[in-house]
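Reply to dn_fold:

You asked what the input looked like. This is it:
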Amino acid sequence: MYVTHLSLVDFRSYASVELPLEPGVTAFVGPNGEGKTNLVEAVGYVATLGSHRVATDAPLVRLGAERAIVRASVVRDDRSTLVELELTPGRANRARINRSPVPRAREVLGLLRTVLFAPEDLAVVKGDPSERRRFLDDLLVARTPRLAGVRADYDRVLKQRNALLKSAGAAMRQRSAGADLSTLDVWDTHLATAGAELLAARLELVDLLRPLVASSYASVARGSAEISLDYVSSLGPDAPLAPDRAVLAEALLVAMGEARRRELERGLSLVGPHRDDLLLRLGPLPAKGYASHGESWSFALALRLASYDLLTSDGGEPVLILDDVFAELDVDRRQRLAELVAPAEQVLVTAAVAEDVPAALSGVRVDVLAGEVRRAG
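and this is what came back:
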């Protein structure tokens, strides 16, 4: 799988750019702030419908423009597909596949797969649980695009249930007649159903990732301590955590019933996948708070390399994107990572200076300067 052409209109800093690409390594080189990351961010957006840098689409539209257009020609199994996305802040994004409109933008998910390495990856190891949940869910959707719908359903039900808990809790505190909880059971069932689907998928994913992450970490950080991954559920340590959707749905319903008084007091849902975490251990200790900077980087790289291996084993090798990563690594980790990713079908690298790109990743160089994108040589 690889991208042969990227076209942008009013995306980030680019009024317009046409960028031919090819298999192998392409390095985008130029000073910081000139638009290198904007290019690979656009490729990643086609694959995920999200940015690794911002939480909303508004910053992706060039200042003063009403909308942005991203087009990518993707080759998979010798078949080329044109994916077009129209980003309009405040409105639903629109998408086309081979010039034909599709009902929802998420119909494009799965046509392009990417694995992106970026300085933001450190947050997966050192940041809040939400970063690790996002890592798992993004990988789930990359493997099984229909789970984007499950994820959206869960978020929608959670929002509705929280609104009900907040209003009902306030009414109860005021001893008001408005404290009608008759619909809460219905929302409990909806949340348990969607939550069980998401939770089961996460548990299955963590089981698949464990050996791959351990192997990748050993390759990146030779001679370092062993690592492990454990899923931590808001259901508690004694809850059944086998990926059985019916059992998990029942466990979620029971836990919500037990937590109802506390939920009404706080006006939010205290049980469900949105409260879970992925515990990353370095030896016997949690990586968060105990791992050194270098160990944290190695762990983050191992998670991405394992994601790449898992997606490749599913069929369809993803495009690898390395956004300003090498400047963050010491010489040994830089060289090991370069050797590990060099055989990939397509690798897109950004770097402030050409010297930051290891020799193992020699290939096409594209200079990015003052809004101009030019192939070197």
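Residues 1-113+317-377 form a domain with the Rossmann fold fold (CATH 3.40.50.300).
Hope that clears it up.
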